[in-house]
Each structure stands twice: as C-alpha cells, then as structure tokens.
Amino acid sequence: MRRFFINKKKQVVKLERSELIQNILRTLPDNPGVYQYYDAEGKIIYVGKAKNLKKRVLSYFKDQHDSGKTMVLVKKIVDIKYIIVDTEIDALLLENNLIKKYQPRYNVLLKDDKTYPWICIKKEPFPRVFTTRIVVKDGSTYFGPYASGRVMHMVLDLIKQLYKLRNCNLKLDDKSIAANKFKVCLEYHIGNCKAPCVGKETEEDYDQTISEIREIIKGNINTVSRHLKILLQQYIEKMEFENAQIIKEKIDLLEKFQSKSTVVSPTINNVDVFSIVSDEKSGYVNFLKVMNGAIIQGHTIELKKKLDESDEELLTLAIAELRDRFNSDSKEIIVPFAIDTEFPNIEFTIPQRGDKKHLLELSERNVEYYKREKMKQESLVDPERHTKRILEQMKKDLHLSEEPRHIECFDNSNFQGAYPVAAMTVFKDAKPSKKDYRHFNIKTVEGPDDFASMEEVIYRRYKRVLEENQPLPQLIVVDGGKGQLSSAIESLEKLGLRGKVGIIGIAKKLEEIYFPNDSIPMYLDKRSETLKIIQQIRDEAHRFGITHHRSKRDKGTLKTELTEIKGISTTTAQKLLSHFKSVKNIKEADEAEMVEIIGKSKAKIVFDYFNNQTIV
C-alpha cells in the first residue's frame, strides 16, 4: 500500500511539472533571447541563446534526441525562465556572461582566465603605463589580457626605448607642480624621465606621447611611424639635427619591431582570425589579432563539451567570449566555415587562397599544436587516462561493443604468386605488443590469391586461439577492402566467432573503413586518433610481413641459384653470398678468391659450374 502511495505521489509531481512546462512552452515569445533551465532544487542547469526563443526551446521537448545527454537534461528540467533581448548577438553575449557566472552543469565549460596580465594606462595627470593582473573600473584604459608574457614585455620594452615616462606614484597636478612640492629623482638623472613633476615636461607633450603609446599597443605601428616621419622632416627643415636624430632612432626602432612581427601582407588591417579543432570531449579554439599585417595577440582556449555541441556552436561561443575578453573592435573575422549567428556590422570571411588563407592556416596550426601538446601532457601525467580516452573514442567511431584494448591486424605478402606469407601485429592498450607478433607461411593457396590467403590465416589463427583457450581480441583489422574482409568473416563463421569479435577492413588507397555486411565504406577524419591507431597497426603489419617475405624469398633464391650445384650445400651457398653479396658477383669471381671462402674442392665445383654455363 505504501509503495502504491509513493508511486502515485511521484506521478502527481511529474504531472504538475509537465503542466508547468507545457504552460511555459505555450506562452514563449518569438523574440531573440536567452533561456535558463532549472532543476528540482531551483538550480540553473543549462543556459542557451536563441534567435527565436519559442522554436529553440520547443526543440528540446520533441520525442526523440540524437544525444543521450540531451535526453537526461530534459528529464531534469522543472522550470524555464527567459530574458528577451534586441538582437541575436546580444543573446550570445548575455549567454556567455551567464555561463561564466553560474557554470551550469550541462553547458560548455568556459574559464574566465583572470590571471592573465594587462597593460594599464592609468587615468591621472601624466599617466603611468604598467602591467597588472587586476582590472579596476576607475576610468583607466586596459589593453589585453596577454596570454603571452613575451609579447607583452616586447611591447613594453619598445615603449621604454621610445619614450621617457614617469614610473613614480606621485600625485601630480598643476597646483603641486607650481608649488615646487617635488624634486627630481634618479630616473631623471639617468635619462629615463623628463621630470614632469618639476615642470620640465608639459602635460600637452606628455599626452601626445601617451596617444602614440596607445596606438602602438593597439598595433597601429604605421600610424605612429607616419607621425614621427612628419616630425622628423619638420626638425630637419628647422635644422634641429639633434632632435631629428632622436626621432630617426625612434622610427628605426619601430621598423625593427614591425619587421619581427609582420607575417602577412601589411594591407590586412584590424582583422580577427578564429579556427577550431575538436574531439569527443572538447573543442579547442585559436584566436589571432592582426593589425597592419602583424599578429599582436594570440590565444587558444579549450571548451569542455557537455551536450555534444557542434563545432559551429563552440566557435560561435568562443568568438563572443574572446572578442569580449580581448576588447576587439575588428569589423572582419576570418573563420574556417560559415557562422549562422548574425554579428552586427561584422563581415565573416572564409578565405580560399592568398594572405588571408595563410593566416587561417597559421591559426589552424596553432590550435592543432595546442591540442597535441595538451594530449602529450595528459599522457605523461596520467597515461592510463590518456589511453582510456583514445580507446573510448575508437569504440565510438568503430561502433564496437567494448573498448578495443587488444587489437590484431593481418596483412598478406607475395611476389608474383611466389613465397606467399602473412603477418599479424598486435596492439594492447593502443601500443604495439611486439612479443605477440606472428608470421604465417601460406600452406593451402596456389598462386596470388589474397582472399583465400586471408581466409586461411584467420582460420588458422583463431582455431589455435580457441584450442589453447587464449583470450580473443576485441578488434580484428584486415588490410584490404570488401573482398579480404568477407574472406576473414567466412573463417570466423566456420569457427563460430562471427559477431563475437569486432572486425573491420582498411583499404590503403583512400583509407576507407569497411564493416561486415556494409558495402559503403566509412571515412574517418584524417586527424582522427582512431584512424591513426588503425594506420599504425596496419603499417606495422605491412613492415613485419615484408621483412619475413624478403627473408623467405632470399632463401628461395639461394635454393634455385646455388644449391642446384651438385656438392654445394645451403651453408656453403650462404658463405659465398655473404662475401660476394650476389650470385652475379659469384659468377664473375676468380677461383682463387672462392678458395679463401669455401676451400679448394668446393671452389673448383662452383667455378667450373658457372664457367661451363657461360660457354654454353
């Protein structure tokens, strides 16, 4: 009776929840906005943006979902709230801020990275320029954050070489300066400051310096350089050569700095570049800021997936996040594919060739490098976790019932139908297990028949595995297409193993992956770790098989060329080949030279045999 009561109560709660959700869904507006899903504890579990709130939210409550994670999310929703905004970009920015504030369980994980340094131009008379990790909203101007301390310090060093700025904490104002409250310090005497504290530099001149510094930090080197060149000409015309020399040195410094950082055409100005790579669990987005053909900022972030988000969703979120974080005002954004979200007054470019394409490729190399390094660090710190991640991805990509911790791969070799052999290589936990490699001499097949050879080898291998009660692999890889795979499956069928072991074929030409009973191959991304593991074990099998095949062929050559001579054994033939390197050299050798290797009597037999052959 008690159990019935509990079930009935749960049904009532579920009914009430369903009615509440249905009522909210009926009244959703068609405006752009942000929606928030709450669980039974009143906690935000998901935040999303939408061009049309009604259509987007209703899509979550359809009968079927491709992602199991989305189904779990929907089951936990007990309340929905939303915020209407004017545009889709406003929704994107609001979504970004809410995700960072609440860190909902089912949202992409965004890190705020508050530890990165900034360059601050302080809001005060005779502003100081310094680095800080704390942004204070006091009217000061902050540039950054700088993901690379090297780039930031390179900019600051340039500024220090170009301009003489104060670095003291004195509160300078006209009244204090006029009252002679301050005295010059060591920085003035060593030439690092012009001493505005005692009126040796006017506020107007100092502000002109700060204006140029702002342009340099923004990357507008050409703007500052043009201004300095005009000033240089004015000093020359006035014959103020000492001042002219100072300006010339500044121009040289700027050009030297610019030459180090220019990577593309100087005509590309104020452009953002974004690229993305992703795997099952994360997306990695690289951002480059380009001014006057120079990259002045670069940063890569990782976004942890929660609901199998697409690359477009991740890239869109990253663009909003990084442009906000780096205060970008670029009107052009270079991306690898089209973005559905509308960014007002911004042009998206998908370059096909030229300098912009080179920039995108540079960004892609950066993000690939970042991902590889992260994987390497992960494998060093926690190799088991790294291996498990790869195996989980292989299980998903190849539609296996379990992780392929034990993989066996087979490859056939023959030379115009002669000396047919096969090789088996073994990977355990995604790494070669060379002690388990095996060679096979084909016994039942006449002529060059890859299909029959594969059928024989698979049958012999797994018949022995069953007889000796050895563990079966989770995956068999066959080097070849549909024909070789079908032959291997026939052998598994005879042994009663079909369906008990995962099996695929890989065709070399286009790296197609074939599955049983499926004539249409699958193509894995060339950067896929799954494909790389399959290629590695296939290439190992090919190498291992070729080595055995050459050895057998060489022995066959010995048998047909030398051991046919009456009185010459395989051992004697081997001695001759070891010394002379080939049968041709043996034919051309002097008898005396052979005597030193195999003795007088045998040397005479070989010499007479080949010389008689030559005469005939």
Overview in brief:
It contains 20 helices and 19 strands.
Please characterize this protein's 3D structure.
The chain is an alpha+beta fold and 616 residues long. The protein folds into five domains: 18-102, GIY-YIG endonuclease, CATH 3.40.1440; 118-261, no CATH class; 271-379, Alpha-Beta Plaits; 393-553, 2-Layer Sandwich (Nucleotidyltransferase, domain 5), CATH 3.30.420; 562-615, 5' to 3' exonuclease, C-terminal subdomain (DNA polymerase, domain 1, Orthogonal Bundle), CATH 1.10.150. The chain is built from 20 helices and 19 strands. The protein has helices spanning 2-26, 53-60, 68-76, 88-102, 149-162, 174-178, 186-189, 203-218, 221-237, 241-261, 311-325, 354-381, 383-397, 450-467, 482-494, 529-561, 570-580, 583-588, 591-598, 600-615, and strands at 33-38, 44-50, 79-84, 118-121, 129-132, 141-143, 271-278, 282-291, 294-304, 332-334, 347-349, 406-415, 418-428, 431-432, 438-441, 475-479, 502-507, 512-515, 518-522. Strands 12, 13, 14, 15, 16, 17, 18 and 19 form an eight-stranded mixed sheet that branches. A five-stranded mixed sheet has the order 9-8-7-10-11, with helices on both faces. The protein is flat, with a radius of gyration of 37 Å.
